[in-house]
Amino acid sequence: MIAFQVRKSLEGPNGLLNLDLNIQIEAGDLVTLYGASGAGKTSALRILAGLMKANSGRIVVDGSIWLDTSNKIDMKPQERQVGFVFQDYALFPHLTALQNLEFASTDSTNKSQIAELVEIMELEKIQNRKPATLSGGQRQRLALARSIVQRPKILLLDEPLAALDITMRLKIQTYLKKVHERYNLTTILVSHDIGEIHKLSNRVYVLEEGKVVKQGTPTEVFFNQKLSGKFKFKGNVLKIEKEDVVYVVTVLIHNEMVKVIAQESEIKNLNVGDVVLVASKAFNPIIQKIK
Ligand SMILES: Nc1ncnc2c1ncn2[C@@H]1O[C@H](COP(=O)(O)OP(=O)(O)OP(=O)(O)O)[C@@H](O)[C@H]1O
């Protein structure tokens, strides 16, 4: 179990931002931090990994104290068993993709796991290349593979799949879920993708201005949300396709085709030809039938 109670003053988008979190995460959970840009999600992960100092707080992981500011305990980042994938990947530039994985692996028995990850993340063709020569998506997949090879206690994923196309994203989500279960990881994901959150996580914390304003299962948090947002367009449904556990609805808005990820509950009464409202909720387009 992770007991995470921290305070940190940050420079928020609108002045001082007081990050103030008190979260308990059960071992084996896969939880998501969700919220607008600048809400403090990345900072929370960085404090947990020991890469950012909290002003005050206490972090206890499986009974071991990682941080206790009142007793001046602050475990070094390298001693915290954390695997992380941040937006900047942090790969070793002088090592090839394969060497990056080998370097991160904890023991020699990991050879078959490396081979498995290379195959699943589709890194075969680029395994002998260095990070600078890879595309953003390839670097992201490599960074994700590397974090898993480290066999961490806690896996921290800061929008790890954001740069990938939908097919690769769905494939890696499935694999991530499998890896999370197989290695009994506790995973904290930052994601704006509601489909991804539904698929992967069992609990969601919604952050606003550094504080948790809502928490629950993905269904509790995202169901029955009132439509609000920066854009709202009417369109016609052209196609509804099943992609793994979510649906992709193609909507014609004026002369543009827009693809919207939807849950089974959202497409239940939806048919090709229906007029729908496509609106933004946080960063995600969502869809609602009008007639
Ligand atoms: N070391 C720091 N000191 C002070 N303020 C910081 C520091 N690092 C980040 N911030 C600020 O804290 C705020 C929260 O940043 P953070 O990256 O945690 O947000 P986020 O919710 O992850 O956003 P995004 O979704 O855009 O990644 C931002 O306004 C950022 O500029």
Protein architecture, described:
The mean pLDDT is 87. The N and C termini lie far apart (48 Å). Helix 2 packs parallel to helix 4. The chain folds into two domains: 221 residues, Rossmann fold (3-Layer(aba) Sandwich), CATH 3.40.50; 58 residues, OB fold (Dihydrolipoamide Acetyltransferase, E2P) (Beta Barrel), CATH 2.40.50. It is of the alpha+beta class. It has eight helices and 16 strands. The site of adenosine-5'-triphosphate (ATP) has 14 residues, from strand 1 and helix 1.
Features:
291 residues, alpha+beta, Rossmann fold, OB fold (Dihydrolipoamide Acetyltransferase, E2P), 2 domains, six-stranded mixed β-sheet, five-stranded antiparallel β-sheet, globular, binds adenosine-5'-triphosphate
**Helicity, in percent?**
25-40%
Quantity of strands, as a count: 16
Portion in beta strands: 35-45%
User: Alpha-carbon distance between the termini?
Assistant: 48 Å
Pick out the low-confidence regions: none
Order of helices and strands: EEEHEEEEHHHEHEHEEHEEEHEE
| Overall domain count | 2
- Please give the order of strands in the largest beta sheet: 7-8-9-3-10-11
Query: What does the overall shape look like?
Result: globular
Instruction: Indicate the structural class.
Output: alpha+beta
Whole-number mean pLDDT: 87
- The number of helical elements comes to 8
| Each distinct ligand | adenosine-5'-triphosphate
> Considering the protein shown, what is the CATH homologous superfamily of the largest domain?
P-loop containing nucleotide triphosphate hydrolases
Query: C-alpha Rg, in Å?
Result: 20 Å
* CATH level 1 name of the largest domain: Alpha Beta
Outline the biggest β-sheet: 6 strands, mixed
Report the CATH architecture of the largest domain.
Answer: 3-Layer(aba) Sandwich
- The name of the CATH topology of the largest domain is Rossmann fold
Give the oligomeric state of the chains in this entry, treating copies of one chain as homo and distinct chains as hetero. Answer: single chain
